[in-house]
Amino acid sequence: MDLNTKFTPETWPAHPEKATLEAKNKFVGFWLFLGGETILFATLFATYMALKNKGPSGFGFTTQELYTLPLVFVMTMLLLTSSLTSVYAMYHLKSYNFKKMQLWLAITAFLGLGFLMLEVYEFSHYVHLGFTFSNSAFSSAFYTLVGTHGFHVAIGLVWITLLIFRNAKRGLNLYNATKYYTFSLYWHFIDVVWVFIFTVVYLMGVIG
Amino acid sequence: MSSVAQKSGFGATLWDWLTTVDHKKIGILYLLGGLFFFVLGGIEAMIIRLQLIVPNNDLVTAGLFNDLITMHGTTMIFLAAMPILFGFMNAIVPLQIGARDVAFPFINSLGFWMFVFGGLFLNISWFFGEVPDAGWTSYASLSLHSPGHGVDFYAIGLQIAGGGTLMAGINFLVTIINMRAPGMTYMRMPLFTWTTFVASAMILFAFPPLTIGLFFLTFDRMFSGNFFDHTMGGNTIIWEHIFWIFGHPEVYILILPAFGIFSEIFATFSRKRLFGYTAMVFATVLIGFLGFMVWAHHMFTVGLGPTANAIFAVATMAIAVPTGVKIFNWLLTIWGGSIKVTTPMLYALGFIPSFVMGGVTGVMQGAAPLDYQLHDSYFIVAHFHYVIVGGVVLAIFAGLHYWWPKMFGTMLSEGLGKITFVFFFIGFHLTFLIQHWLGFWGMPRRVWTFMDGQGWNMPNFISTIGALLMAIGFIVMVINIIITTVKNKRVGDDPWGDGRTLEWAIPSPPPFYNFPATPLVRGLDTLWIEKMEGSKEMITPAEPITDIHMPNGSIIPMLMSLGLFIAGFGAMFQQEASWGLPVLIFGLAFTFVMMSARSLKDDLGFYVTKEQILQDLKNKGGRD
């Protein structure tokens, strides 16, 4: 593959993310990887549901008392919006508009960072209340499920930051288009997982 | 493996193997690594059997016996059987589908090195004197209370090796989906490729639960989590579910490639098209699907209730149907064939009755009420050794003889091969057949020793003698490999003379780019079609010879795995030593920096020029 091939919006392929064999492989491979990730989170969800509200005798924490929906709602809005901005970025990827793509990805990263900071605040708040990781089966399951999601967000932030800076000077080519595209797939996946966390952990926790 | 000038000498060769991304070399590495652990697991098995040769024996202590059974099971499943099968998949599948390499050569190498470092991590426990001792299933009620670092080695070692397996699975899936040569439709793929495909899909969905289960275990043991501790609200049954949601598909991940190997061998040495190819493919997919539906049959006695037990009992028995379809198709492939009883064919013929016996006892255990009687007895030990040794290990030995010439360019001795078979096959039945009755007579599995006068003396003695015969068979095979390698008598493209699939149409071993020109596949058993038409070249090319794009080697996969290996020690010792946490962070950071380096530096590979390929063709192949 020649990185120096210069494209114009007219010569840029309709599906730059899978224009070469290597790119096709990464594209399919990444979808399969997300399939495996789905099972990984499914296992975490199942465990969380089994251990919800379970603790040693005299255990005081319940989901109803612990969670506060307004904070989680703000987090949800941040993450859902960041998914939308990553869609804008992919739109510009396909129309070969590098600057705008980078801009929208930077916005995506900032929204993701906001989400992550709120999550850190949320966790530290719970720890402050005495709801620590080793406090009970419930707390272990909660921090592992939500924390694994948060860890995925953090990995995504490092990933996109590296991509933005690495390619800042050289623009789009068929080699890095796949990298950008798989990032956006990953980001949507994280978003979908969060929708389930919001429903199963927080909504069902407060209402159920 | 590179187009740049070749350096010779030990250092250069070592560097070449450490950095290789060539699927054939990684296949050989997997094979050697797997055989190394196979020997370790085999020695453990021999000590187990020697301990049980007479009643009230004290060859090993009870604690060491627990170490041995745990490490024997874990080593054989994760570090011997699977890697050896991965070796065949790596070496053969890209050739069978007419590809130049796997889809992700770098990740292929990473998967291999993670297996190596995970396996080393697990086995280093022997030097610490704190060995996993909660059984290969490590049920939480045992493993949480196992003193020392034994189970920590299990949790972290398998975590590292399991990550490598998951990568290998995704890699094979993408390779088979995207890189088939023109004309190689799904329904023209050789059965070994098909079974690799389905087994890889099962890996993709079975290994993430293992990852999570091992994380829970790691958290509970090393980071004061409470997933399985009932005094803290945890639930020990969660581990059993998660483990078997992984563990049951795992046995099909092992047996399906074995089925694939035998399907190739039956067709080749019956010199007949595989009978019922379509039904075979369908049965493979069905087994892959049903394999996820039956995990709770390992837990009949847990007390899930009659409804759950009934559902899982029916699902378990349903798997016998597609498996039976396969057995009959193999029999009908042989029927009326022009049979050549070579060593691989001998293993294949021995496999059918052995595996059927293992399958039948499996259905017996699938009947939940009967399982209450059989559970945790030697009957279970007999059953799973009949399917795993009678199925997977026989397939591994068969595949080793069958594909050895393709992988190494030399032919294993047929005479010694048959001697191996006789010793191993007789030894196998001698060891395990009697264990069915031992189970009926009440001997529980995993016992360190037994008392005199229960009628168990003679059966245990016979069983140990059988194990010795198996060991002799294996030693003959090692001698065979050494003699063959020393003699180094080179063979041609199709040394068996009856090859049907693409791998037999190119030199043994193939040049590092496999096919000078991508082949055009004209039907099932495409090489056989070419042979029947009397074509000279054996391959109809799909394209003219042009420059070939190949990936660069890299040391990064090994370094990434090394980082995880270091981090593992940090995680384990952070409980008692202050250096633990920094080491954990350093190891993970090291891996991550290596990964970023890989990501940030463009690696576009290199081109093999048309001139070089033409030159190779003139010299008739030959590895670089």
Q: Please bin the fraction of helical residues of chain A.
A: over 70%
The CATH architecture of the domain at 72-130 and 148-207 in chain A can be given as Up-down Bundle
**SSE pattern of chain B, N- to C-terminal:** HHHHHHHHHHHHHHHEHEEHHEH
State mean pLDDT of chain B (0 to 100 scale): 94
Count of the separate structural domains of chain B = 1
Provide the low-confidence segments of chain A as ranges. none
- Rounded to the nearest angstrom, the radius of gyration of chain B is 24 Å
Query: What is the mean pLDDT of chain A?
Result: 94
User: What is the 3D form of chain A?
Assistant: elongated
Compute the CA-based radius of gyration of chain A: 20 Å
Number of helices of chain A: 6
CATH superfamily of the domain at 72-130 and 148-207 in chain A: Cytochrome c oxidase, subunit III, four-helix bundle
Describe what this molecule looks like in 3D.
In chain A, 75% of the residues lie in helices and 0% in strands. Chain A has a domain at 72-130 and 148-207: Cytochrome c oxidase, subunit III, four-helix bundle (Four Helix Bundle (Hemerythrin (Met), subunit A)), CATH 1.20.120.80. Chain A has helices at 21-51, 63-66, 69-94, 98-129, 137-166, 174-207. Chain A is an all-alpha fold. With 624 residues, chain B is mainly α. Chain B has a single domain (10-554, 603-618), classed as Cytochrome c oxidase-like, subunit I domain (Cytochrome C Oxidase, Chain A). In chain B, strands 1-2 form a two-stranded antiparallel sheet. A two-stranded antiparallel sheet of chain B has the order 3-4. Chain B starts with 9 loop residues before the first helix and ends in a 6-residue tail after the last helix. Chains A and B meet through helix 1 and helix 5 of A and helix 6, helix 7, helix 8 and helix 18 of B.
